[in-house]
Amino acid sequence: MLQGIGLSKNFQGKYVIRDVDITVRRGEIIGLIGPNGSGKTTLVRLLSGEETPDSGQVVLEGKPLVAFAAKERAQRVAVLPQEGLSPVAFTVQEVVAMGRYPHESAWSWLERRMDSMVETVLTKTGLTEDRHRPVQHLSGGQRQRVAIAKAMAQEPHCFILDEPTTYMDIAHQIAVLDEIKEWQRERELAVLVVFHDLNLAAHYCDRILAMKDGRIVREGPPDSLLTASLIREVYDVDAAVIRHPVTGVPQVLLSPGETTVSLLSRSRTIG
Ligand SMILES: Nc1ncnc2c1ncn2[C@@H]1O[C@H](COP(=O)(O)OP(=O)(O)OP(=O)(O)O)[C@@H](O)[C@H]1O
């Protein structure tokens, strides 16, 4: 459904994405993991058309992404960027209604605000009570929920989220990811999520792709992929991986002392 074929991207003479193949299929949540600077956001930006690859191409529903007009593309792909929503003066409801833009014809602004899809996502994301508050008065976590609601209102077939739970407390991390998962199942969406939290990735993803130095180095279901050796290979960190006592999915436990040693030696190498 959304495919990157042989993607490479070079910034200032340095390849940050190297010959990456990736397919995000309908009905599937893929997690993209990897250390800082490994190329996750750049890959997301290539897949959403915000960056142009130096080689390779992105194919959406069988057609090159570049062949879609911006509005057609927005009807199919919604992106939650890493930087989230700016603290704008618009209200929560107005921002969520902006997500309807790709589907509107000659509707007026007022009609757009009354759209039932806006009501549905405000309810789903628990934002009904805050609907008349200006976004600039919300906390970082609340703003992130508004950004997710706006993307949901877009009714895409494919949803790309770059670290969606940044700024959220643990209750909202779970609530928002549960909602995204339920919505993905209902609509058979193709979902790609960049995760730093490997334990959340293990719970929510059907498949995980691990990136390092601009390449996808390992790929598989969380159950078989998330091992101590993978974490050592990708992050240079010695971690213990155990089974969650209730769900049985792999969970990563860090050993702080060893993590610090690895990071110090890595920064010495970089410096
Ligand atoms: N527009 C740009 N110009 C120059 N270099 C860039 C640009 N965008 C990204 N890079 C570089 O590309 C590399 C990969 O960055 P990217 O943001 O894709 O990594 P990431 O895996 O998402 O990192 P993080 O986990 O910190 O968000 C980094 O070295 C970064 O400095």
Automatic annotation (TrEMBL):
Residues spanning the membrane = none
Please name the CDD domains in this protein's record. Answer: ABC_Iron-Siderophores_B12_Hemin
Q: Which Pfam families does UniProt cross-reference here?
A: ABC_tran
Matching SUPFAM superfamilies, A to Z?
P-loop containing nucleoside triphosphate hydrolases
Which intervals hold domain ABC transporter? 2-238
InterPro entries under this entry?
A: AAA+_ATPase, ABC_transporter-like_ATP-bd, ABC_transporter-like_CS, P-loop_NTPase
GO MF assignments: ATP binding; ATP hydrolysis activity
Sorted keywords for this record are:
ATP-binding, Nucleotide-binding, Translocase, Transport
PANTHER family, sorted: HEMIN IMPORT ATP-BINDING PROTEIN HMUV
The identity of this protein, by name, is ABC transporter ATP-binding protein
